[in-house]
């Protein structure tokens, strides 16, 4: 009779051992995934921090665009000097104002 009893115990031990290994492997893969996600989040935050602290590069020798009032005053000066006719002044002003 002892043989009849060993098989169910052996089967239960084999199933339990397999389930234990599968659970252990799953937990390990989840831990690895969490580690990779945390490392990626850290790299992203490092890059964002670098971008926030480093000023944007400027092209050397390039001046910023003059303001609209500066451009209008230049057009008015050219018109007063006679360089621009009334029609040319009106067209340039309309183009600058976007109308």
Describe the structure.
The chain is mostly helical. Helices cover 79% and strands 0% of the residues. Helix 2 runs antiparallel to helix 3 (86-97). 0% of the residues are buried. The model has no long low-confidence stretch (mean pLDDT 82).
- Overall shape: it is rod-shaped
Give the biggest sheet: none
User: How confident overall, as mean pLDDT?
Assistant: 82
Which segments are poorly predicted (pLDDT under 50) over 5 or more consecutive residues? none
Strand content: under 5%
User: What's the helix-strand series?
Assistant: HHH
Number of strands: 0
Work out the helix count. Answer: 3
User: Helix- and strand-based class?
Assistant: mainly alpha
- Radius of gyration (Å): 38 Å
What's the arrangement of secondary structure elements?
Blueprint: H1 2-53, H2 68-81, H3 86-97
Helix pairs in contact: 2-3
